[in-house]
Design brief:
Rossmann fold, alpha/beta, Arc Repressor Mutant, subunit A
Length: 223
């Protein structure tokens, strides 16, 4: 199974809040999409696989309660974190009864949101080995550290995510389309050369002997 960068959908109609959360989560290395209403949230969950849905309960269009109920029925592997301006116990109980995995009342601390998202993702996604190794490479997904022959290698977030995906593939070829799906988000042009450019910078940073091999017409694998 290929490693996946954590993919999160934020269903939130307060655009400034949604944008701020998305920027922060992307800095944490996650791929993030935004849905401004319940109808779009349902469409996106049917098109993409999300590790976690951050769901505002009071969404316009389709109410957050209905979104929660339907996503839980159709995508049982997706973790659901429900947000609400209300902190009453009855709201908490109702949200959990609809299938939400966790509940966070506004206002909340961003660090707490990140911790809860990561906890939900660990439940919904099969755990990968604590360390990934290939030849003289050692990658730690938890601490986001990479070493080669014992020496640290500094990578940008997307470079790290691409290498993590290739290492988890254990020698199998990963297509550019698969890398786009797992490392980037829905706004990435499928015809862009972003994968090729990221592979180029990754190869440069890893140095010689080369590790990432191009399989012409198919994709990339570790040599």
């Amino acid at each position: 199974m290929l490693a996946r960068v954590m993919r999160v959908l934020i269903a939130e109609d307060e655009r400034r809040l949604a944008d701020a959360l998305a920027r922060g989560l992307r800095r944490e290395g996650m791929a993030v999409d935004i849905a401004p209403d319940g109808s779009e949230a349902l469409v996106k969950t049917q098109v993409f696989r999300y590790d976690v849905l951050v769901l505002d309960r009071d969404l316009p269009g389709v109410h957050g309660d209905e979104v929660c109920r339907r996503v839980r029925g159709e995508q049982p592997e997706t973790g659901i974190l429900m947000l609400t301006a209300a902190g009453a116990v009855e709201d908490l109980v109702h949200g959990l009864s609809l299938g939400a995995d966790d509940y966070l009342a506004k206002p909340f601390r961003f660090a707490e949101l990140v911790a809860r998202i990561r906890a939900l993702a660990r439940r919904s996604v099969p755990r990968h080995p604590p360390l990934l190794r290939h030849r003289d490479l050692e990658l730690d997904p938890a601490s986001r550290r990479l070493t080669r022959s014992g020496q640290p290698v500094e990578l940008a977030r997307k470079e790290f995510a691409v290498l993590e995906t290739l290492m988890a593939a254990d020698g199998a070829t990963v297509s550019a389309e698969q890398l786009l799906e797992r490392v980037w988000d829905e706004h990435t042009d499928p015809f862009t050369n972003v994968v090729r450019m990221t592979i180029m910078t990754l190869r440069r940073k890893l140095g010689e002997p080369g590790v990432v091999e191009t399989v012409i017409g198919v994709g990339y694998r570790l040599a």
